[in-house]
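Sequence in, structure out.
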Amino acid sequence: MKVFKYLSVLILLSIALFISGCTVSTKDTFSKEPAKLQPFTERIGDYVFPIPSNFTRKDDLSMVYENKGLVRAYLVYTGKASTPKLISFFEKYMKKNGWEKELFVAGADTVLAYSRGKQLVVFKIQQSFGGTILKVLLTTK
């Protein structure tokens, strides 16, 4: 009976150590959401567009193709902002930079598309545990 009791305690301690050792803290992964989103101008080839300054590009998840002045890109940014704040941010700052809204789709993920001349920028906003993922596609109409 004593062996069973010690074995039970040992198993419970092992499980507790396993669970506490395997948790990942996202506290420092994403900064706190600012009261107001400030624009940072991103320049990739001929594409110039605003990104909230509290977002960071993840180069290991992004891809840029350049050939003879032709640029196509898939960019991934992480930060923290609510979807309504990001929608307002892009509506304000894309318009200021001469971009015209082409598409708006709201759902579990939100998609916004803006064009300027033949250029097309598509933003996909995804809320995840502890932060926001912003995916950006640079292409043409």
